[in-house]
Amino acid sequence: MAIPLMTPYKMGQFELSHRVVLSGAAPTATCPSRTAVYYSQRATRAGLLIAVATVVSATAQGYPETPGIWTQEQLNKHEGFLYCHMVEPRMAIVDGHRQIPHRLLPFRKAFNGTFIAAGGYDRDEGNKVVAEGYTDLVAYGRLFLANPDLPKRFELGAPLNKYDRSTFYTQDPVVGYTDYPFLDDSTKNNL
């Protein structure tokens, strides 16, 4: 049986190999050179990565050395929207299980392009919402942060690394961003 999150998807001119999206979150502000490492660790063939801190004017930079798109030529290249990326309202924990409110349906119905939902999804819930047509793609932040090979882990049904919330938004460009083990690394340690 096909795993919904691992099925291909055509988004405009892009042929995605799976529906697991990296939500924007990287050590850009603290160490721009580590941003390339962060994104390259999580890149997959024909996967979608949503970059963080793309500023729209030279005067809108919140942090030095953040990437941006602000020339008139760059802005005029983009006609219409390729996708709509929305975050579910806060999830609740009921009887030890995540309960996602699924309140994005009106927006999903109103938008005719690719719809990306985020907000506390795990593998099972992500598969469910893709299979039911609630969303086209599912964006993962914390799970992708802790599992640089998240699509592979989802495909194999492999265990996930736990993320360490205490390392979120720290000044250290490595700890909590690029130091999580890949599946191959963790299985070698468990043999």
UniProtKB/TrEMBL annotation:
<dbReference type="InterPro" id="IPR001155">
    <property type="entry name" value="OxRdtase_FMN_N"/>
</dbReference>
<dbReference type="GO" id="GO:0016491">
    <property type="term" value="F:oxidoreductase activity"/>
</dbReference>
<keyword id="KW-0288">FMN</keyword>
<keyword id="KW-0275">Fatty acid biosynthesis</keyword>
<protein>
    <recommendedName>
        <fullName>NADH:flavin oxidoreductase/NADH oxidase N-terminal domain-containing protein</fullName>
    </recommendedName>
</protein>
<feature type="domain" description="NADH:flavin oxidoreductase/NADH oxidase N-terminal">
    <location>
        <begin position="84"/>
        <end position="160"/>
    </location>
</feature>
<dbReference type="GO" id="GO:0031408">
    <property type="term" value="P:oxylipin biosynthetic process"/>
</dbReference>
<keyword id="KW-0521">NADP</keyword>
<keyword id="KW-0443">Lipid metabolism</keyword>
<comment type="similarity">
    <text>Belongs to the NADH:flavin oxidoreductase/NADH oxidase family.</text>
</comment>
<dbReference type="InterPro" id="IPR013785">
    <property type="entry name" value="Aldolase_TIM"/>
</dbReference>
<keyword id="KW-0285">Flavoprotein</keyword>
<keyword id="KW-0276">Fatty acid metabolism</keyword>
<feature type="domain" description="NADH:flavin oxidoreductase/NADH oxidase N-terminal">
    <location>
        <begin position="5"/>
        <end position="79"/>
    </location>
</feature>
<dbReference type="InterPro" id="IPR045247">
    <property type="entry name" value="Oye-like"/>
</dbReference>
<keyword id="KW-0444">Lipid biosynthesis</keyword>
<dbReference type="Pfam" id="PF00724">
    <property type="entry name" value="Oxidored_FMN"/>
</dbReference>
<dbReference type="GO" id="GO:0010181">
    <property type="term" value="F:FMN binding"/>
</dbReference>
<dbReference type="GO" id="GO:0006633">
    <property type="term" value="P:fatty acid biosynthetic process"/>
</dbReference>
<keyword id="KW-0925">Oxylipin biosynthesis</keyword>
